Amino acid sequence: MTNSKPSTMLGIDLGTSSIVVHHIADTRTEKNSIVPLNFQGKETLPSYVMIQEGGSVACGAAVKDQIANNPSRVIFGAKRLIGHKYHDRPVQELFENVGFEIQPDEDDNPLIVVDGKKYMPEEISSFLLEHVKETYKSATGKEATDCVITVPANFNDAQRNATKTAARIANLNVRKFLSEPTAAAIAYYNIEPKDKIHLLVFDFGAGTLDVSIVYIDGQVFNVKAVAGNSNLGGADIDKIIADYCIEQFKKKQSDFNPKDPNNKKNMALLLKTAEETKIALSSMDNSQITVPNFYNGEDLSVKLRVSKLNSLIELILDQIPTPIHSALKAASLKPANIDGVLLVGGSSMIPAVKDKLEEIFPEKIKSALNPLKAVSAGAATICQKFMNGQLRDCEDVKDYVRQRTVSPPMFAPGTIAVVDVQPITIGIKTANDRFQKYIISNKPIPQKTQIAFKVKENNTLTIQVYQGESSKCSENIFLRDVTFKNIPKQSTNVLLTIAINNEGMLVVEANDPETGYAQTIDFHYDGKLDDAKVQEIIRRHKAANETGKKKAEEKLTQLYDESKKLKSTNRDLYMQIQHQIDEALDEIDEMEDSGDFKKFFELADQISKKIQSNI
User: Fold this and answer.
1) Fold for the domain defined by 1-190+370-388
2) Residues 6 or more apart in contact with residue 151 via CB below 8 angstroms
3) Coiled-coil ranges per the record (predicted)?
């Protein structure tokens, strides 16, 4: 995180199913200065991307509505792919339930394929971030250059790096990664500023379940522990509902095969309807799930009651206490020590989920927060603090964090410090598959460990880096090999430093004070795009946008030519049409940066039909 103060910053909750963004209306005042960004009348942007013919891109609610008509072009769930390998469980589970194509590359990274063109998950996320930037510019007239992006507490190094790459492609500088539960705690403090309290943040979104315990002490937000399940979210509930509907439908149409490519369109529509039903059942007793002409000319129609939904998701509900008790144990706390429970994420609003939490924490659930907007609002608070020079990190409170002092330091009014913890243990492989742990989970960051290693005869040093909690590397996640080359021949031992910085990013250093050898590697996972590849992707996006603009301009010329036929026969209509064409031209100018010309073509088609009906 650099020390320079940007002029504009966005607080971005880059969610699996939707994006929420808050920005700063006035950096000078805190009250009512953090406002949500509006996306066509709504404060959420569905995380759906459509790759159109020619490669131009559209995003948001209109795209989500196209999922049944264009299942191979509408991309969603990119957050479940990002930072993963193709054969990882989250990728395979998503692959079974989407209409678009996913392929592995030579390094087993997942690629999304549309019209023969291959897109990395980072690119899909970058399209959404570009749309956010364009929306912000249209609303404020300002260019967004910097941001704070929230990530699940259990996001690993690979996933954080991939998210940062997505922002780079969108030309956004990530000043800080903030864990989603921590962001929610900050948002809650803005509403109810209380001191010396333990908050348990239960963040159940579309793709992940995170539990964090945050202790607010003076001006310090101290994350005591995190736990969770990065492969469990609301999307899993959507699939359970869809599977139940298929089970009921097969009682009438026993030969229906949900994996048949011919059924992808209606399966995509069923998943979308299942999500809508899940949301509806948070405030209703029952809901009807209907997909017209689902198979063989027969409609799918299933009535789902809350009681039935609860029985369907019983296995998911049974998993909820595990990360809660893990976090409590790591923080050396009991349920009675928790002063308040914050609900975050759409799935936390499910009544049965709330009931499960009430069993553990009676009468401690706080209702002040909006579960869908709290994370982004907390991120924007960090933006505001950053822009005003009022943000401190662990280094500024290290004596307090390491319990060398009882009380936190006093900062200037309005200043806060955020202390996060490492979510997953990181180490290296030693003999006999042994996992030697160096960066320890649920300990404050930054962390670093130094180890002496012998140099090989070829003047190199290679280590294999893993993450996980098992004592065996084979049961953990392999990150990558790190090789240090050209070590001086006179160096027999090299001091290796493995460190996690304030942003949760891994850095590995090797040095030999006797010979002066030193090399630093900013750690990135194997799927990481280098600078040249990032620039190539940016050029490709720009070329696709230019193609879309060219087609839009050709359509505009066609409209002008068609309208001339009205000039002598219906002057009033001709002038009206000219005004509408000018409005369509404005759409081209407004959408040039994002490459989303869908609204223009819809408007152009309406104008063309009006002309043709009056010639």
Assistant:
1) Nucleotidyltransferase; domain 5 (3.30.420)
2) 14, 159, 160, 163, 177, 178, 179, 180
3) 549-594
